[in-house]
Each structure stands twice: as C-alpha cells, then as structure tokens.
Amino acid sequence: MLSKKTWADKPLPLLQTPSATNDTPGHPAHYIANEMVFAHNAMLRGLNAIYNQAPNIPSSDVADFLFFTASWTAWVKHHHIIEETTMFPSFEKVKGVKSGSLQHNAEQHHGFSDGLNTLYQYSTETQPPNYSGKKVQELIDGFAGLLYQHLADEIDTLWAMDSVPANTAEAGQILTVYKQCEAEAGKQDKNVVPPMVLGLCDKTFQGGNEWPKMPWGSAYIVHYLFARKHRGAWRFLPCDTWGQPRELLFASEE
Asked: What phi and psi values does residue 18 have, to the nearest 5 degrees?
C-alpha cells in the first residue's frame, strides 16, 4: 500500500501479538491471549480509521460515516458486555484460575464505557447537517487512552491463565469458555459485523497471519452478500474484505 495518507495504525499504536515472540499453540491461555490481540487490533484500526477521517468527511458521505462509527461502537460495546457477563466470570470458575484475577480488567470497562456510549449516541442521533468531525475526535479523545490501556492490559491477564496445567480437563474448560463466547459474538447482525470486522483485519500484519480463521469461501459470502446492504459505510475501512490494507479514503496526508 503506497500512500502518504495517515493510516489506521495510528494515533493509537497496534499491539504486538504474543505469537510474534512466543510459542502460543501449547496452552489454551496462550492461544486465547493471541487471538484477543488480533481482535483488539481490529478495534484499534477501527477507532483510528474513524479518528483520522472524521474531520474530512464530505457532507454527502456523513450519513454513511455515522453508520460506520455507530457500527464500530456497538461492536466494541457488545464485546465488553460478553466479557463482563460471561467470559471473565466463567474463566474464574475454572479450577486453577486465580479468583478475582480478571476483576481489574472488568473494572477497567467502567473507565471508558461512558465515552463509548456518548460516541454511539452521537453517531446514531446526529443529523448529517449537524455533523462535526472535530466533535467526533473530541469524543474519542475523552476515552481512547483508557480503552487502549484496557486492551493492552487484558492480554497479560489472559496469558497468566497458564497457571492451569496444560493438557488437563481444566485447560480444556478455558478453551470451551472462549469458544462459547466466540460463538455468541458471531450471532450479531451479519450485514454489519462480518463486513466491518473483515475490513479491520490486516492479513499482512507482523509478516502475515490468518486471523480470523474462517471456512473456505466465507469471505466471498460476506463480500458479495452481507456487505451489500451497508456498502457505503465500508468505504471507510482500512482493509478490503480479504485483509489487504488500503488507503483511508478521507484521511489527511502525513
């Protein structure tokens, strides 16, 4: 991708995956931590894409941009609801996971949840003639630091669940909890979340990756079927459906 425009890897820097420096397949906790970094980086690319393009949106494109912003915000909110209500409590019920070890990460949600809610409210209630890109950036500035800290801190907490011995029933329970939450997340609107998330995944990141792993042909279904309904909103994504980085349409030059 040859472009002088600001991209979605800033202003909030992306997180390094544990697999870049460690062997991750050996323990479910390591696998989960690695998968979560990919998910968190998708969130960061989305927030950076919103932030970097917000001031430059033409009036004719505001409605689509507000929908993109609302979709990203709703997805992140849903992710953290699953963590609080299901994932974290279920992890802590597994023998060998320290009781209360994920409480700090859950409490961090409260530091940025109001900011997320305000951004969601703005993006769903603002009429295009009243749109302000500066206002969007101000709202993001109000919670981005706390969100970023949470996304980074959570990885170490998940990795530390390797206190559960590998190759045991308890280790299997950890993986089962994660897969169940993953399945629950997959129930979100297929016309919104799959097209958006695939466009937030960079398959070239750290030398190449296959996140998220999907059955063969699934990306084609997303691209040619699910993405059609809100196609205008996906123009603001930093990658195409196949995970290839592309220029942010309305970002400023660096």
From this structure: -55, -30
pLDDT digits (tens, 9 = 90+) for 199-251: 999 999 988 888 888 888 999 999 999 999 999 999 999 999 999 999 999 99
Host domain of residue 44: 26-189
Q: What is the DSSP letter of 161?
A: G
pLDDT for the residue 192: 98
Among all chains, which residue has been given the structure tokens 């559960």? 164
In DSSP notation, 16-68 reads PPGGGTS--TTSHHHHHHHHHHHHHHHHHHHHHHHHHHGGG--GGGHHHHHHH
Q: What is the mean pLDDT of residues 23-41?
A: 88
113 located within any domain: yes
CA 123 to chain centre: 18
1 pLDDT more than 60: no
Spatial distance between the Cα atoms of 233 and 63, rounded to a whole number of angstroms: 8
Report the amino acid identity of residue 119: L
> Residue 79 falls within a domain, yes or no?
yes
In a domain, 135, yes or no: yes
Residue 30 lies in a domain: yes
The CATH number of the domain where 146 resides is what? Answer: 1.20.120
DSSP string, 56-99: G--GGGHHHHHHHHHHHHHHHHHHHHHIIIIIHHHHHTSTTSPT
Q: How many domains does the chain have?
A: 1
